[in-house]
Specification:
Elements: H1 2-5, H2 19-61, H3 66-98, H4 107-143, H5 145-151, H6 154-176, E1 180-185, E2 192-197, H7 201-243, H8 249-291, H9 302-330, H10 332-341, H11 347-359
Helix pairs in contact: 2-3, 2-9, 2-10, 3-4, 3-6, 4-5, 4-6, 4-7, 4-8, 6-7, 7-8, 8-9, 9-10
Length: 360
């Protein structure tokens, strides 16, 4: 719920502080303002555009494999999260930059701002779930490859994502179903402020923290296991290539399959690693609130708190934008499809065409 509460008081700097406090609060204030009004919108537009490209390319590649299906679903949720962030920023700019946070901004605009703000954690949680499923499935493919192909089929992976997503959304909807938006106007300054009431904040915080720490721990464990497996595969590949001078066609086909598996493994490792790095600021919110007195929306360090939450949002948007580069540089088939889609010339495209002709 931390992301839901951000920015509701970001521009309301209160007085009665010494000069040093005012300087630090001004620094936090303008840092938040620059990120929220200039940097994050660019990242949001980039996130929407890049994930549309991802979906188009993955559909062109085919959706037979479970990993590819998961990448498509991840692109959908990431794209929607970026779109919600962009809509929220537009409302923010209209409310505070144009109307100055006064009653000139309509009640509907305030409510739209809050709704888009509340939708971001929903979508980011779904992206977190899908990333965790991708990492776990790929880790299981390394640890017990024969059994995984029979048990974790593409359909079952998709079904698991749908069921767990429904559970996650149900808990969050239950915690926020009775939310009420109340608009208060200060008669002296004509400044408007939205108050959110009726949220089961204890339940929501407990769920959010448990889900965040559990998924991060699982993904980090998977990254470690996949990293070791990738290192072993690289050693085996180098030793095998040094021993074998010529191979029959069946051996070439097997080697191509192993190479593709290594590419998928690299893709998953980098996606999971960047996901972990990008979500560390969000995971530390609860720790900072427990250990720093006044680190809250209305506490002594409210400006630092609001600035920190905007930075956490920026990190999440950077994670959303990073996936297209990971796919492009570490997934050879994606790279070839991307070059064909945008009519770019690259040696991978020619190699893919030659491999297709050889198979035919």
């Amino acid at each position: 719920m931390a992301l839901v509460l951000k920015n509701l008081t970001i521009l309301h700097m209160r007085g009665n502080d010494d000069f040093a406090d005012l300087l630090s609060r001004a620094a936090f204030h303008y840092t938040s303002l620059i990120l929220k009004m200039f940097f994050n919108p660019v990242l949001a537009v980039g996130g929407v555009s890049s994930n549309i490209v991802n979906m188009v390319i993955f559909f062109k590649m085919g959706l037979k494999e479970g990993t590819t299906q998961s990448f498509v679903v991840l692109s959908v949720t990431d794209g929607l999260a970026a779109l919600a962030s962009f809509a929220n920023t537009v409302c923010y700019i209209l409310l505070y930059a144009i109307y100055g946070g006064t009653a000139g901004g309509s009640r509907n605009m305030f409510i739209t701002y809050c709704i888009t703000l509340m939708s971001i954690p929903y979508l980011l949680n779904l992206s977190t779930l899908i990333t965790t499923v991708i990492a776990v499935v790929r880790c299981c493919c390394v640890v017990m490859p024969l059994r995984v192909k029979q048990v974790l089929t593409a359909g079952r992976q998709l079904m698991a994502i749908v069921i767990i997503s429904c559970i996650i959304c149900s808990v969050q909807l239950y915690a926020t179903a009775s939310v009420r938006f109340s608009l208060f106007v200060d008669p002296r300054t004509n400044a408007s402020r939205i108050h959110l009431t009726g949220i089961k904040i204890v339940l929501l915080d407990a769920f959010r923290n448990t889900f965040c720490y559990f998924t991060l721990s699982v993904v980090m464990l998977c990254v470690a296991i996949l990293g070791v497996a990738l290192k072993q595969a690289a050693r085996f590949h180098s030793s095998a290539s040094g021993q074998l001078v010529a191979s029959p066609p069946s051996g070439n086909s097997k080697r191509q399959t192993n190479t593709r598996e290594i590419q998928v493994m690299k893709t998953v490792i980098f996606i999971a690693f960047i996901f972990v790095i990008s979500n560390i600021p969000t995971a530390l919110v609860a720790v900072l609130r427990l250990n720093i007195e006044g680190f809250s929306r209305t506490g002594r360090y409210r400006d630092f708190y609001n600035c920190y939450l905007v930075i956490a949002e920026t990190c999440c948007l950077m994670n959303i934008n990073a996936n297209i580069f990971i796919y492009f540089f570490f997934n050879r088939l994606y790279h070839s499809s991307f070059c064909i889609l945008f009519k770019l010339k690259h040696k991978h495209v020619l190699e893919e065409k030659n491999a297709t002709k050889t198979q035919n």
